Automatic annotation (TrEMBL):
Name used for this protein in its record: Heat shock protein DnaJ domain protein
Positions with biased composition (Basic residues): 68-78
Domain of life: Bacteria
Keyword Signal in record: no
SMART domains, per the entry: DnaJ
TM stretches of this protein: 97-120
Originating species: Limnospira maxima CS-328
Amino acid sequence: MEIRRAYRELSKRYHPDTTDLSEDCAKAKFQELNEAYSILSNPDRRQIYDQTISTTRVITPPTEINYRHHSRPSKSRHSSATEAIAAENRPLSPGELFALLMMAVSLISCLGLAIAIAMFRSDITL
């Protein structure tokens, strides 16, 4: 019932004969509205739509991450989710660079400590 009421209100607003919008814009909006109503008013089509929309609602990171406060042009308008998270598509942030530096320092320190312990203990040989 609520869908029908909303459809009637919006159809009055966007009908090409009764709107203040341009004719092309009004036609496009009215066609979208009719398509949406035909899906939502039919239980079978609505169930298919709900299943489709639930499978496509995957949380994806933004395709453009702007760490350096400037925008770069995107390669294509339709990039996939795997392209969005690939490391070669964006520069490392200062925080990521710092984390990599700390991991490298930790690794070198651990290796140095292991070698130093091995040298001072007589029962372990390299």
